[in-house]
Design brief:
Chain B: It comes from Roseospira visakhapatnamensis. Chain B: GO terms for molecular function: L-isoleucine transmembrane transporter activity; L-leucine transmembrane transporter activity; L-phenylalanine transmembrane transporter activity; L-valine transmembrane transporter activity. Chain B: It is a multi-pass membrane protein. Chain B: Belongs to the binding-protein-dependent transport system permease family. LivHM subfamily. The complex is a heterodimer of chains A (346) and B (287). Helix content of chain A is 74%, strand content 0%. Chain A contains 15 helices and no strands. In chain A, α1 (2-33) packs across α13 (262-276). Chain B has a domain at 14-121 and 135-218. In chain B, 75% of the residues lie in helices and 2% in strands. In chain B, a hairpin with a 2-residue loop joins β1 and β2 (135-137). The longest helix of chain B is centred in the N-terminal third of the chain and has 32 residues, at 2-33. Chain B starts with a helix and ends in a 10-residue tail after the last helix. Classes of the chains: A mainly alpha (346), B mainly alpha (287). Chains A and B meet through α4, α13 and α15 of A and α3, α4, α9 and α11 of B.
């Protein structure tokens, strides 16, 4: 029993860490490669989550849609929606210093949060969107498997159906349609995000981005369209954040504006990227898992203090992570896994 | 209709005064240290809570606790700079920006730890408003606007008449020239944090008088404060006054037409408009 509990927790832990890793990869394209500062990660994350939720839920009177579309379309829609928001913000700020982008992203994240809370026709307001289907759970239901068994030769089909209807079959179905599927789905999309971002990094385009980060005037002198490349990087990063939002919505099954406070969506992701090593995709992954492990570990601190001090303990956890960020920035700015060719301060 | 307009305009002046005091600090810090200080809103909140300690703990009236809060917030700003930002100054300014975002989150959790997560007010009960014709004027509003005017004049005198103030303007205008001419950079930077932190404390206290104290009060006002600083031309403290008033007015007047919850969106919209047509701001800042 204890092992089962531990296993469930382990699956949950890796799933959430995987979603954070996708966010961190998105930020790596923006900050790590190009030097852009996005303080509105929570906003892009929320746009992705709500877009996917509206696309994949069954029809409802409480919010726009739902359109009951399959999960992959939800993910695609989430990426497109986040990318569109990024195009608008990027178009205004790409010509300016990155400080302006940072301020503008704070603004857009705040406005997205206000809109999620107030536009009830769209998002059901503070009550949130419930009953978001888990990805591919329907494909693993009894009927589908029984249908697949129908393809088998007769005697085998009978045996499979017998096993499926029995207690063993029920247990297998329970695990398959449960958290394990979500874990696999998240890991597959994490691999996809990693592949996109790593390809971008080693491509000539990725080199231009890093060159912009290091010496903008030099790149301009070399005849590259700095504004255009920057905008592309910002949009790609934001689309990946939108993908993370879709994964989150369909994994948790319920979303409300409370889930998209700047603290979780934005701050933790920044700490993850800086701790792991900005500019290095492996670093981004390592950072996401290490910081999520640390953050989860401090949860035990909260439990140890008891419910009486729950709010104080919560604040203390955040304070510790805030201090950790400063310590990393001062003592090891290159992160755990530094970008190639970078040592010490940059 | 006209009376409504005047009444809402009055609220706009009050909000504008608060934003101005915050935006001046942001602008000064940007001018000298070249980074957008994202912890400024939470520094405002910290100042407001310092005053709350004196009001609740020692029974001080708000106005009497303000000077202590100003000094405490100025010291806190200098301490943060010395412990954290100073060590990061040699690297790119973007790292300072990220660091200040972390400081913002840390300050907010300190506020929650020390003063609790709930809404609080300095003085309980309803203040009797004055009636001027059909206008309703709360005494607090008068103090806020007067306080802001006095502080802005004091800041003007400081920047134009004192050696430190002139050195600040020189560093903001041309850093290299200022350093070559022997201005003690570290001392001027400390003075900048003291002025910025002190003004932030007042802005926070005024904001708390106008609304209430809450740990996220600073973060939620950060966007309008930056909008004001950008509108006026970031790095230009005088521009921040104009920017603060325009943003404050626009935010309050907009409530006559749109849902008041979208007030921050109005600030954001104006800022975006400014970034499109004139990114250097009204007063030609260091864009």
């Amino acid at each position: 029993m204890e092992w089962a509990g531990l296993l469930t927790y382990g699956v949950f832990f890796v799933t959430v860490a995987g979603i954070y890793a996708v966010l961190t990869l998105g930020l790596n394209v923006q900050f790590g490669f190009t030097g852009q500062i996005n303080i509105g990660i929570a906003g892009f994350f929320a746009v992705g989550a709500y877009t996917s939720a509206i696309l994949t839920t069954a029809a409802s009177d409480h919010h726009l849609g739902g359109f009951g579309l399959p999960f992959p379309i939800g993910v695609a829609g989430a990426m497109v929606a986040s990318a569109l928001v990024a195009v608008v913000i990027g178009w205004v700020t790409m010509r300016l210093r990155t400080d302006y982008l940072a301020i503008a992203t704070i603004g857009i994240a705040e406005i997205i949060r206000l809109a999620l809370k107030n536009e009830e026709w769209l998002t059901n307001g503070v009550r949130g969107v419930p009953a978001i289907p888990r990805p591919f759970s329907e494909t693993l239901e009894f009927d589908t498997l029984a249908g697949l068994a129908g393809l088998l030769p007769d005697p085998l089909e009978a045996t499979v159906l017998e096993v499926l209807s029995g207690p063993l079959g029920a247990a297998v179905l329970e695990v398959l349609s449960g958290p394990l599927v979500s874990l696999v789905v998240v890991l597959v999309f994490l691999a996809l995000a990693w592949w996109m971002v790593e390809r971008a990094r080693v491509s000539p385009w990725g080199r231009v981005l890093r060159a912009i980060r290091e010496n903008e005037d030099g790149v301009r002198a070399a005849g590259k369209d700095v504004v255009r490349c920057r905008l592309q990087a910002f949009v790609l990063g934001s689309a990946i954040m939108g993908m993370a939002g879709a994964l989150y919505a369909n994994f948790v099954g319920f979303i409300s504006p409370e889930a998209f406070l700047p603290l979780y969506g934005t701050f933790l992701v920044w700490v993850m990227l800086i701790a792991g090593g900005a500019g290095n995709n492996t670093g981004a992954l390592v950072g996401a898992f290490v910081i999520w492990l640390l953050w989860s570990a401090t949860q035990f601190l909260t439990d140890a203090l008891g419910a009486e001090y729950a709010t104080q303990a919560g604040a203390l956890r955040v304070l510790l992570i805030g201090v950790l960020l400063q310590v990393i920035l001062i003592l090891r700015p290159q992160g755990l896994v530094p970008e190639n060719g970078r040592k010490g301060r940059h | 209709m006209l009376m409504d307009f005047l009444q809402v305009g009055l609220y706009g002046v009050v909000l504008g005064s608060i934003l101005t005091l915050g935006a001046i600090g942001v602008s000064l810090i940007y001018g000298i240290l070249r980074f957008a200080h994202f912890a400024h809103g939470d520094l405002m909140a910290l100042g407001a809570y310092f005053a709350l300690s004196l009001v609740v703990g020692l029974g001080f009236p708000v106005w009497a606790s303000a000077p202590f809060a100003i000094v405490a917030a100025a010291l806190a700003a200098i301490a943060i700079d010395q412990i954290v930002y100073r060590r990061l100054r040699r690297v790119e300014p973007v790292i300072l920006l990220i660091s200040s975002f972390g400081i913002a989150i840390a300050l907010r959790s300190i506020i929650q730890l020390v003063w609790g997560p709930h809404n609080q007010v300095y003085v309980k009960g309803i203040q009797m408003p004055w009636r001027v014709g059909d206008l309703i004027v709360k005494p607090d509003h008068v103090w806020i606007v007067l306080g802001a005017v006095v502080l802005v004049i004091a800041l003007h005198l400081f920047l134009t008449r004192t050696k430190t103030g002139k050195a600040m303007r020189a560093m903001s205008d041309n850093m290299d020239l200022a350093l070559v001419s022997g201005i003690p950079a570290e001392r001027v930077i400390m003075a900048t944090w003291a002025v910025g932190g002190g003004l932030a404390a007042v802005a926070g206290i005024f904001l708390a008088m106008d609304t209430r104290l809450h740990p996220v009060m600073g973060w939620s006002v950060l966007l309008p404060v930056f909008a004001a600083a950008i509108l006026g031309g970031i790095g230009r403290p005088y521009g921040a006054i104009a920017g603060g008033m325009v943003i404050g007015m626009a935010m309050e007047l907009s409530t006559m037409i749109i849902d008041p919850t979208y007030k921050p969106a109005v600030a954001f919209g104006l800022m975006v408009l400014m970034l499109i047509v004139r990114p250097q701001g009204l007063f030609k800042g260091n864009a």
